[in-house]
Amino acid sequence: MDAQKSNTSGSSRWALFQDRAFLLYWIGFALSAFGDAIFFLDLQWMIVKLTGSGLVMGTMMLVMGLTRSVLMLVGGVVADRFDPRKLMALSDWSRAFVMIALYLLTLGVGTPPMAALYTLGVIFGLVDAVYWPARNAFAQRIVDKENYSQMNSISTGTMQLSVIIGPVLGAILLSAFGFGVGMWINALTFIVSAFTLLAVRKHWNTVYTPKKPQDTTRTSFKTDLFEGLNFVRNTPVLMWLLILWFFANGAANGMSVGLPFIADEFGVGAQGLGYMRGAFGVGGVIGAVVLSIWAVKTPTPRKVFIAFTLQGLAMASISLMHNQWEVAALMFIGGIASTALSVISSSLMLLLIPQDLMGRVSSVNSILTMGSTPIAQGAAGTIIDFAGPHVLYAAFGIVEAGSSFAGLFVPALRKYRHNTTESLPA
């Protein structure tokens, strides 16, 4: 164990919860995750009430998503050049600014200028493009390698809970206090998150020393950018993982388009849709709790693709179901598999990627995994129109399971088990 790292011991399943640095990071991350979930509900409700325009809603999501995707590579370079802890805090402060600005835009009578709304959407997308690479870089440095899986289990469970509970909290705030109070409370969560992350200072200085200013000028921004891309290209295990994830993850996300149509076909309405979606989240939370207690000590590509294959088979089986409860049961299984593959793949990435490249390489990963989603969702809509949602689940489930199963036979991935983590860059 590196003496400069956290004194967290892998021998205890509760060791991470005794580590002050991790607890502060986790609290900050959780507050930011719940703040994001509440923000998206508030933003969507504000657009509905103030504009009543589906076009504004769609283009706002598009603006935020495109900004995040286009600038993610730049955010990765920034995360590797500067202190990721401070970048995360700066991102949270920027989110708080967006919350307050949205509130101010709604004051008075009338609709806020569309240009102002889109500008705030661009700012939020820009913040995300920096926050996530910085988060990956920061998380890698505060725990030891043997605790990566447990840390990722806890983080994944936190994200699952934020997706389930965050919108509910946002709705309660809106109904009880109105839009303004809700936005101010949401801004407060981001501010507290930022200060919580900065409170890691003493432990952070013993774990990692960011590059000095003179170090960051040794190479150009373009050189740093291509260094991350070249690392992916020259690391067969990582390259094949990303290629197969592009197809498997795209298929998995594309299937989400079909669930409302399944609910409509069964005649169960929004409530039934909620049950089916909720089952996936509940499965994810249970999986995260289990994996945070009994952590995966040796993450491998084989384990990732086994989980992906199981999820794909569960989703494909939805095409054969005849009621919401059967679908909910399969969604529950899919949620467990989703958490398992997320935890194992994230831990594997932390082992494969050197600390000084984490921001750049993780941004490439994010672009590829997110880049396939709009393509798959567009194709999913076409399949639904021409053949129905059951055909969508059968086709995309087979694509997810098939591409994942193929990964078990790629030599670079199959033989990875024979490598040791000590031989990997750290």
UniProtKB/TrEMBL annotation:
The keyword Cell membrane applies. It is a multi-pass membrane protein. GO terms for molecular function: transmembrane transporter activity. Gene3D superfamilies: MFS general substrate transporter like domains. The keyword Transcription does not apply. Residues 21-414 form the Major facilitator superfamily (MFS) profile domain. It is found in: Cell membrane. GO terms for cellular component: plasma membrane. InterPro entries: MFS, MFS_dom, MFS_trans_sf. Keywords: Cell membrane, Membrane, Transmembrane, Transmembrane helix, Transport. It comes from the Bacteria. The chain crosses the membrane at residues 21-41, 53-78, 90-109, 154-177, 237-263, 275-296, 303-321, 327-352, 364-384, 390-410. Pfam families: MFS_1 (PF07690). Its main location: membrane. Belongs to the major facilitator superfamily. Drug:H(+) antiporter-3 (DHA3) (TC 2.A.1.21) family. This is Multidrug efflux pump Tap. It comes from Tumebacillus flagellatus.
